[in-house]
Design goal:
The structure is a homodimer.
Chain A (H helix, E strand, L loop, with lengths): L4 E2 L9 E3 L23 H4 L5 H8 L4 E3 L2 H7 L7 E3 L1 H7 L4 E6 L10 H13 L4 E6 L3 H13 L2 E7 H6 L1 H9 L3 E5 L5 H9 L7 H13 L4 E3 L6 H21 L5 E5 L4 H15 L5 E7 L4 H4 L2 E5 L8 E5 L22 H8 L4 E5 L1 H15 L5 H20 L4 E6 L7 H8 L10 H7 L18
Parallel strand pairs in A: 5-15, 6-7, 6-9, 7-8, 10-11, 10-15, 11-14
Antiparallel strand pairs in A: 1-4, 2-3, 4-5, 12-13
Chain lengths: 461, 461
């Protein structure tokens, strides 16, 4: 019988993360201080991040050692299995070989602990007593809560109010791991108070929740802030997944022609794709696709520009694809990936032509998720369904072209705590939704695009 | 670094199930026809089960081949990893070595697909078009829904009404896999109608739901019924887990002194314990503990007697530990394992002295679950917390005695879809509850205990 799952022994868990900054075709634009407009330095970031993470944010060292204490916790669920999707292939009658990396086996059910564990660890050794963060759907908040339990750090999560109300199970997971979770906008911060003063019924947004969490960290010297995506050090930690995949694909005797991941802030996508992009930069032919919702089309319709990471403009200005820091997706959208921006590293690699961004409508994503559940068993997170929808498109294209393509997709998490979104779909309460042009224009009124960086040219790197 | 998880390669997945009937110290009492009082034959069972499962129900063949089509689906999540609980050991400061088998990695999140997949398969090859079943907390219903999706069989689930209302996510999982799930008692069966006529607000019970599912199967020749626990063939299928464990413990270079599993109908416990009980029957010293809730103390306070499997007395009479077929646990009880009976095989092995039953109060179980989540990461199903509570007791006993005991526990599933029970605990809404003696006496008024079977005697087998 053919092998279904490719496991790595624990001894093969990568001992270093891969830092794509060492291999970028063009240097990254620096984050800017919102007051002075000058590049931010370590001192600007030290009120919210511990120094080891600030160093990882700016270093161009290609490989960074993973501390033993982090390895020990990674081993709770890593290395994760790489699956061959025989059931889905058979159903689609495709000649493509589809591999999916199952990041849903972590206790939190997603890829997020890949960075929450090292972030909690570096905070612990830096003397942090408490960490604040934001969470949207709740995957990041629960992953950080678990990591804080492992290292004995207090954890406070500002959860986007609409999710807080719709997803009690996520909140309860955080509490089980010992964290304190409040709905955002809250009355606990000035940022929250000002939003509530304007709109007492605000459903909240990731941008608002970030503002609250950052403010709460800044106000207390023993408290730091943690971000679950977007920043360079988060992408770095996630590469443990792609590095495993490289070994597992070698065991399978295959190499991907197409790599697919969904992208909200960009971290699960980057974790899978960056180690392979290193090969692409050195000449390998791979189609690397980042998939986003049509109702939050940051990469496909937002400019590459300096913008704030949060709504009330407390964070540094980041060079990234953005729909504007005040953007909030339409309420009809149920599939997550709602952030207004995109990781600067992912954004610049898109601009360089190394990553192909695509958007999909939500009905296609849920349909794909149900097909996947009935053929492969696993019920995917709504976010992950974006990647599955694109996988099905590519597998059908391979069938049309009669090509034996190898498709590798990051199955970033399960959806067992997100069944309300499936219910909305199955009851016919969802609809497709594309963002009107004028809404994008309005959101971007005061955002000036950056000059386009140098294009990727396979002959040149 | 020490190994955290012991994996078996897919080639080491057991190719046969182990049938403990071949090694029972005393022959099993037969199930009896409720009308005639005579042993039931295959013809009595054929309206509700396909013939291959009826054969497995009665055979005394020691090993039964697992069909290739079942192996193919097992490989979606099996072999499951055996974990060393370093985090919990350290927290308890115990000299015991604690191993837990992670059955939560299946797409349905529990051990239940070990039997739902072969049951769906044997129904498929026997021409069954539709399968009915009952479910309490929803683990079995979701596992059967998934298996039916794999083999293209229609699936109808009667879900105990109180769970149906409290656990919408479980129902949505079933629907995602294509099943039809209704609250029981329903108006779709005579059994349901008669219960509703007596009490329109009936919260339902497993016994009632079984009556409905059996009736729906009997009424249609293309429909069969599937049971997720209790019966011999279910125990058989679950042994794939214990057989893996034997290989994994050998890789670890250890052998269990204590084996622990929670028991509602008995199947996850049996699946882990039976392959080791074979060793015990042949002289090995192992303390094999089945753990149940103090508020549903079937094994520790119910007699070994002939009783119905369901409430309206449609099933054969089974020789088992029982609290009486009309028993319903107190509403304060939130930890699952609510069935009034116990698998005949488990019951008789208790009577023979090979299995030690224990009961625990619910506050201890949830406390144990939270300790486990904060040290090992994984959030357990409330049922599984019973096994963890007993594991902690045994680990602390080993510490007191200064003994390096090896404890093996079946971690039967995760609790991510059962967070409401954790919420009740964390908000102080749960209390301990022991069943009053007079309530047991009342429930058992018309149940006559069976004679005690021969005691297990290690020198003798």
């Amino acid at each position: 019988m053919e092998v279904k799952k490719i496991f790595l022994p624990e001894s093969e868990l990568p001992r270093q993360w891969y830092n794509i900054m060492a291999d970028m075709p063009t240097p990254m634009e620096p984050p800017l201080h919102p007051g002075t407009g000058k590049p931010v330095g370590p001192d600007d970031l030290s009120p919210i991040f511990p120094m080891p993470l600030i160093e990882q944010e700016v270093t161009s060292q290609r490989f960074i050692d993973i501390p033993e204490e982090v390895i020990e916790k990674y081993l709770i669920w890593r290395p994760t299995p790489l699956y061959r999707a025989y059931g889905l292939e058979k159903h689609l009658k495709t000649p493509a070989r589809i591999y999916f990396k199952n990041e849903g086996v972590s206790p939190a059910g997603s890829h997020k602990p890949n960075t929450s564990v090292p972030q909690a660890y570096y905070n612990k050794i830096s003397g942090t007593k408490k960490i604040t963060t934001e969470t949207g759907a709740g995957q990041w908040g629960s992953a950080l809560s678990m990591a804080c339990a492992f290292f004995g750090i207090e954890c406070k999560v500002f959860m986007v109010k609409i999710s807080f109300n719709q997803k009690p199970y996520r909140r309860l997971m955080m509490e089980t791991w010992g964290a304190n979770c409040v709905a955002s906008p809250s009355t606990e911060t000035k940022a929250g108070q000002s939003i509530l003063a304007e709109n007492p019924d605000s459903p909240g947004s990731l941008g608002i929740a970030i503002s609250e969490a950052v403010e709460a960290a800044v106000m207390d010297p023993d408290t730091k802030y943690a971000l679950g995506s977007v920043l360079n050090h988060v992408m770095l930690h996630q590469t443990v997944n792609g590095l495993e995949c490289i070994k597992q694909m070698a065991i399978a005797g295959d190499y991907p022609d197409v790599i697919i991941g969904c992208a909200g802030g960009g971290s699960n996508f980057a974790g899978m794709a960056f180690p392979f992009l290193r090969d692409k930069i050195h000449g390998k032919q791979i189609d690397v696709i980042a998939v986003e919702p049509a109702s939050c089309p940051t990469m496909t319709r937002g400019p590459f520009a300096y913008d704030f990471g949060d709504t009330v403009q407390m964070t540094p200005l980041l060079p990234m694809h953005t729909l504007g820091h005040s953007f909030v997706p339409a309420p009809i959208h149920a599939g997550g990936l709602r952030y207004h921006g995109m990781a600067p590293l992912v954004s610049q690699l898109i601009m360089s032509g190394l990553i192909r961004p695509e958007s999909v409508q939500q009905l296609e994503t849920f349909k794909a998720g149900i097909t996947f559940a009935r053929t492969e068993g696993f019920i995917s997170a709504p976010e992950t369904n974006h990647a599955i929808a694109m996988t099905i498109r590519e597998a059908l294209k391979a069938k049309e072209e009669g090509k034996e393509k190898v498709i590798l997709v990051n199955w970033s998490g399960h959806g067992l705590v997100d069944m309300a979104a499936y219910e909305a779909f199955m009851r016919g309460k969802l609809a497709d939704h594309a963002l009107p042009d004028e809404e994008i224009r309005r959101a971007l009124a005061d955002i000036a695009p950056l000059p386009k960086p140098k294009q990727y040219n396979p002959g040149k790197f």
